[in-house]
């Protein structure tokens, strides 16, 4: 047969061979489909890792770095130390991403709030010391007739001035009296002055200053000691200063116990926790990770509890008899077996919103921001706008609740439907930053929306989070606690300092009034010494 000849008839294969070919084609198609799925999944995982890397770089270089491209962030990573000026310089090198309408509206509101109110009026209660600035000799003589000019008034400007801190030694002299006739009566000595630390070389005011310096202003005790030595030549042992401050913490523990009982007697508590390093004998060269647990409520005190663990057993013990509303973030320790059967658990909407903000932040310039993510944030902002309007109008809780009932339902319906649609679309990897934000919100939807049922619930736990900031700032300066035994005393100090700040109580005056003789007071009298009671007394 001619090899060049081609038959138009189909080639008939052996049935067995045809079956094998068909099976191979099917297996090859399945293998290719499996490979395609693996590649698609890998691309989604790479996208997730890129998002996490970008988010980490944004956290490293600050808020302004959100405007940088991935290449600019990568270049900054190569620098051993990057300043804010360098970040600003990188921003100026290229065009900024276009802002959305909501961003522009937010910027306008921010600028409106930041308009300068004018020169501040200095408080009227401060002493006024006149300092007269005389005219120059040429101004004291009339340029026309040569006669002396007269003072006809003053151009006044008030400036806030101060005197350098002045330390001095108070010599406490207790009188000793005796009768010159009745020798048998002996010698009578004046009573000992009631002090915070009777045997300390520091006065009450000095001890309070040390405490405020560290726990209100975040200046470590060793640095305060160095300032005394540098500026005044006063050399005292650091342990002496530390013992005096911890003495205050020990005295305050019973008052904080009263504050905790008062808090648990209410109907609404916000809870949060933050870690702190603690030096322990069993860990050489490494700090133990302990925690300050914070419990508070608006218009009430702030209570810190120090524990060496973040275990669920800590809040379980604190709330064992509590049947009110507990408002927290999404930490699992608050989820189950907390409080009585009547306890109502609510979650923080601000935490959910932050997750969507992070999902928007990690979007690069090459990949436009998902408008659905932006819409979620806009809707959440609408909920916060309702409460902001209530605050500005100084509405009561009942009136705020009525405002929520009027405006919030439509926003919540649209938000919930949008989240469900995004989750069902399959376009967002469940473990991506956006996917996690959606799952976090939907899984806690009932707890996130409980503010619609209970007027007292805030939209966020920012009240509690703001109370944690002094600890976060402080640990950057004084780094860790010296021992676990010091933890409860420091927790008591933070409780009082933060309660006074929240309630507008002058911390220095409060401590000066409450601390002397506190160890000798009865348990029953402590209820009148809490910052809340002190604030009520000041208001009268």
Topology diagram in text:
Layout: H1 15-61, H2 70-77, H3 84-93, H4 101-113, E1 176-178, E2 187-189, H5 204-215, H6 221-232, H7 238-264, E3 268-278, E4 288-296, E5 302-307, H8 313-318, E6 325-328, E7 344-347, H9 349-361, H10 371-392, H11 397-424, H12 433-443, H13 445-448, H14 462-478, E8 480-481, H15 487-503, H16 507-514, H17 531-539
Keywords:
single chain, 540 residues, alpha/beta, six-stranded mixed beta sheet, two-stranded antiparallel sheet, 17 helices
Describe this structure in words.
- About 50% of the residues lie in helices and about 10% in strands.
- It is an alpha/beta fold and about 550 residues long.
- Among the domains are: about 195-245, no CATH class; about 245-540, no CATH class.
- Strands 3, 4, 5, 6, 7 and 8 form a six-stranded mixed beta sheet that branches.
- Strand 4 (about 290-295) and strand 5 (about 300-305) form a beta hairpin.
- Helix 10 packs antiparallel against helix 11 (about 395-425).
- The longest helix has about 45 residues, at about 15-60.
- It starts with 14 loop residues before the first helix and ends with a helix.
Distance between the termini: 120 Å
Helix content: 40-55%
Query: How would you state the average pLDDT, rounded?
Result: 83
Q: How would a textbook summarize the main sheet? A: 6 strands, mixed
Uncertain runs are: 64-69, 71-87, 89-101
Give the tally of β-strands. 8
Radius of gyration from the CA trace?
A: 34 Å
